[in-house]
Amino acid sequence: MALSDEPAAGGPEEEAEDETLAFGAALEAFGESAETRALLGRLREVHGGGPEREVALERFRVIMDKYQEQPHLLDPHLEWMMNLLLDIVQDQTSPASLVHLAFKFLYIITKVRGYKTFLRLFPHEVADVEPVLDLVTIQNPKDHEAWETRYMLLLWLSVTCLIPFDFSRLDGNLLTQPGQTRMSIMDRILQIAESYLIVSDKARDAAAVLVSRFITRPDVKQSKMAEFLDWSLCNLARSSFQTMQGVITMDGTLQALAQIFKHGKREDCLPYAATVLRCLDGCRLPESNQTLLRKLGVKLVQRLGLTFLKPKVAAWRYQRGCRSLAANLQLLTQGQSEQKPLILTEDDDEDDDVPEGVERVIEQLLVGLKDKDTVVRWSAAKGIGRMAGRLPRALADDVVGSVLDCFSFQETDKAWHGGCLALAELGRRGLLLPSRLVDVVAVILKALTYDEKRGACSVGTNVRDAACYVCWAFARAYEPQELKPFVTAISSALVIAAVFDRDINCRRAASGTFPHGIDILTTADYFAVGNRSNCFLVISVFIAGFPEYTQPMIDHLVTMKINHWDGYPPRRGHLGAGRVQHTAASAVHMYTPSPALSALSLAVFPRLLSMTLSPDLHTRHGSILACAEVAYALYKLAAQENRPVTDHLDEQAVQGLKQIHQQVCVQPLGVGLGGQLMRQAVCVLIEKLSLSKMPFRGDTVIDGWQWLINDTLRHLHLISSHSRQQMKDAAVSALAALCSEYYMKEPGEADPAIQEELITQYLAELRNPEEMTRCGFSLALGALPGFLLKGRLQQVLTGLRAVTHTSPEDVSFAESRRDGLKAIARICQTVGVKAGAPDEAVCRENVSQIYCALLGCMDDYTTDSRGDVGTWVRKAAMTSLMDLTLLLARSQPELIEAHICERIMCCVAQQASEKIDRFRAHAASVFLTLLHFDSPPIPHVPHRGELEKLFPRSDVASVNWSAPSQAFPRITQLLGLPTYRYHVLLGLVVSLGGLTESTIRHSTQSLFEYMKGIQSDPQALGSFSGTLLQIFEDNLLNERVSVPLLKTLDHVLTHGCFDIFTTEEERPHFPQWLSKCDTRVCRHSADVRTHTPPAWGSRPALCSRICSPQVSAWAFGSGPCAAPGRFCGMVQFPGDVRRQALLQLCLLLCHRFPLIRKTTASQVYETLLTYSDVVGADVLDEVVTVLSDTAWDAELAVVREQRNRLCDLLGVPRPQLVPQPGAC
């Protein structure tokens, strides 16, 4: 992404947000203390509303958000910030808007630091109870603008509930008047809490905190707990999660109950636990589609379960060392090893009865492990861990068994994920005894590779990630000797997940500690495993060098990845399999006797060959690719010892490879997915077996391979567009390898019969009416080895030049022209440069024809429904020109003629100044490569010295040419070089008239900066104007250029770039040509010309197609009302230019569209007032009156009369009606 040269559009808030992203968790202190203090001190000045208030609030929010990841840095400053804000709140003179603003600031602090830490700082003395209570009482729960106030006041009130005095002491005399009783503080607090538990805003959460602190007070629980619980259960019974209000009510009530059973004493809550559990069962929360309600239900259930059980630490739990780091260090200093695990003993109260409700609680938590939402499963897993810690050993073991039942392939991925979370919690708490590790490790190994297809995607990422978490928990929970029997299996599975998993988070989660961990993690670190290709093709090769992981990795690729349904990442295992096999074979060969190498290859190949006959399409596809890669890897290993590949493959394996394409059912192309996948796989097989020099020369299998390649190239149009390129590349690569290995009769000589057949057939296919067929066989000709092209080069080049030529029949075949250019460039690289051999190599006799074909495609601007498809052709032409020029420069630079080099550089410079970012960047890269090539330098580069100063070699890497802000200021400097001016200005005109805002802005600025620099140089300005006029003439009827050129003209006239010509009345220079060109454009392309000046004669009326509003809009630049403004801009030039401009404006006053007539009249009115010398002072008032008083949207007969009157006043001839014979 480019760095913008523009100043930041946002204010300090956006800059602060950028800093937050940049610093991450690297902050060391609260650096905005002084600014925050000043900000809080100004609240009294900005509270009234308006932008100042919003700016202060937003600035404070940005400052606080910066510390979201390190909120502890705020701790030393929380007290003074709170004091400043509470001073405002407690000031009786503070208006309501100021109080609400102060509470908004308090809420922002609470959101970042968390209410639990911030809560302790609130004043909570006895004197604070009633003021806070009064403040809460006067709040309006329906005021949606002040919810932060209510939220913070409820939290403040919850702190005051912790005072160690009975609330009744604060009531005083409740009888204020005879017959009237004042409500007690206890009742007021309870009433407020209950009312806010059913509101829809954030205050509901604070009300739950208030209830938990209030109801659990010793003086309140005796009189109010039963009443409140009864109120809560009634609310739950009456509410339904199918209505919005019911969801809100149940949410607040469940939060309050969960908080009460969490903070309350067991003996106080136990009498009500069974009743609450029965009510909760009746609510049927697991059936709700509200995630939060299900989560709160699980949270409340586990709190009820913990209430049923006595709080204790299970004596039977497994312990590793001390929980305190200081204690462990003390043991080490005393010369003792880490504390040994405790001896397992039976509980003293093993025979105690487990309450009846515990079983129901465990059952609901197990159901929660299978919930569809992660937060619910996570809460249930923590509940399982907490409950198991209070159960007897036998019952806890039953719970573990129930959790293991989640790992059935009849269960969904949700159950597997919840089971992994529960096992991790049990392991962390020492509740998973070593005797269970055998069963647990078995299911975790399955979870590490869990991947199930669901429709068009797969599920299991969360399961694999949770399985890695289980391994992490076990590594910290158990002594090494307990895990020793499982280390090999777990480490292999983790390594496989770290390099072969589809998901980046799973790969990073799996990269932990295992044997050779330091060596492996140095290569497979957090960032390295983020790139999937790097994992499969680089890291896996390195890890396979460790013997412990070689076979498991190969087995995993063959068993799990090769047959995976997702073709891109997992079946990339065929590449990984080949390279891992290669590395493994190398390691075995280096460290073990040679029989082991044969045994390894014999063990893998039969499995792969048998899989090629599988009824599953993906298995066949992946196994064929794997066979190809493994065979090629073994060939490279054998080549290091100058041995044939058959030394590593037995006869059965060789025959199996030869028969694959015959045995595999290859469907015709266009018949389902199987035809595409299998043909692509067999093409890769052909390529790899050919490169492996398999002993198939003269075998009939070669003819079968050749037929398959030809048939694939011939029917590319039947392949889906998204996989067509991959299929084409595979077939062409297979052809190149096949020809190089099996069609050479003698070194450097081809079999004449095969050469004649191939060249003739492929050249004939270049004339196929299917574009994709032309593409395929063009690339096929380009891929042929040099010995097949020998003696037929001219014939092949002629055929390819015909493909690159644009004709009316195949004007839309941009892809075939692109591939034809690629083929020409590749052939030139293949045959090289050789003097006097036009049929064998590039030489003086044929180089001009090649350059002519390549340069001719630089003007391909074909467009269709896909957009500017000509960019593909131009990009290929630029690349081919660069490759050919560099090839000639290295061998025979004298073949590069001056006019050819000049044309190349100018055409590439034009592309470097056009509007499409990525192609502009490619063109700039080609231009600078040709300029700075010095082995040897390219001859005849125009203005080489000036170019090297404008584009120094040191700036090549630092400039982002795809960014308009960096590209256009540099490319416009070429306007000062006469050779490049025409082409660069042509490209700039197209960019300036484009649609992208950034391209238009920066191209316009750059052009104006250049013109500003030559304003004082009449010769340079004249040269520039002459070049612009030449572009006018050359592209007068070219819509691609003429439309943006007219826009450019508007900009140039508006900015006064040609003011110098306003003083030259009759000089036959730029203004005259400008007016003529503009007139010709409008007359060729606008609406039907029913009026024409007598002096210019008449011209036939155009057809109705040109009369269409769309074509009219094109003719008038950016819209139908653009032409009047352009002609009004030319009125400033005296003499004949002014007369012609006024005449054209009079024509537009009778345009067929009323909108254009009205717009023209308005702009002429403004122009006459701006340029006072256009008409005489004696007629100015009359002209202005006609323009302003005439209804220009009236009938043409009425308008024409007023227009003719204006012509007489302005001194221009009246236009005459032109007959329209055969008008359409």
UniProtKB/TrEMBL annotation:
GO terms for molecular function: beta-tubulin binding; GTPase activator activity. Residues 292-514 form the Tubulin-folding cofactor D ARM repeats domain. InterPro entries: ARM-like, ARM-type_fold, ARM_TBCD_2nd, TBCD, TBCD_C. Gene3D superfamilies: Leucine-rich Repeat Variant. Tubulin-folding protein implicated in the first step of the tubulin folding pathway and required for tubulin complex assembly. Involved in the regulation of microtubule polymerization or depolymerization, it modulates microtubule dynamics by capturing GTP-bound beta-tubulin (TUBB). Its ability to interact with beta tubulin is regulated via its interaction with ARL2. Acts as a GTPase-activating protein (GAP) for ARL2. Induces microtubule disruption in absence of ARL2. Increases degradation of beta tubulin, when overexpressed in polarized cells. Belongs to the TBCD family. PANTHER family: BETA-TUBULIN COFACTOR D, TUBULIN-SPECIFIC CHAPERONE D. This is Tubulin-specific chaperone D. The lineage of its organism: Eukaryota, Metazoa, Chordata, Craniata, Vertebrata.
